[in-house]
Amino acid sequence: MYKSRARRWSVVAVVVVGACALAGTAGATTPQEAQGQSFLLNRIVTSVQQAGPNTILTIVDTRLYVGTISGTSVDTLTVTVDASGGFGFHGTSLCSCAIAGHPGTVVMTINGKGQPDGTFADRRETLAASATGAPDGVRLNVSVAGVGGVGQYAGGYHFEG
Length: 161
Fold this sequence. Notes:
Elements: H1 2-23, E1 32-51, E2 54-67, E3 69-81, E4 87-99, E5 102-114, E6 119-126, E7 132-133, E8 138-147, E9 150-159
Antiparallel strand pairs: 1-2, 1-9, 2-3, 3-4, 4-5, 5-6, 5-7, 6-8, 8-9
């Protein structure tokens, strides 16, 4: 009798552990494509500094997204322009947007580079646990490329649960 009770409890334990493991991924979605356009709506330069031949700017951009991501973001960027006019930038984006129709707020990191002719390319990724509202748990990773204030974005996203 003791062996069968112990065996029953071990079976129950295996079932409970398995159910808990599945519960963590039950709400996760498979990776999906994200694509669309972004448009610069407003730019405010909040500071300008010289560091040798480089100019360092702090910029706040307001951007409109259409496509898989839809809504507006406020991007706070540090931009370093070298003597040739090329530039590198990094910062964060606070996006009040819907991702695949799920509205909320998402924080993304931004890292990119640009050329003197105004062409640019950057990478935007959500910070872990930064989403609120319906996109809570979203993981977004897109590349943006464009010229001036208009960009095309493409990448992927999924919801973790």
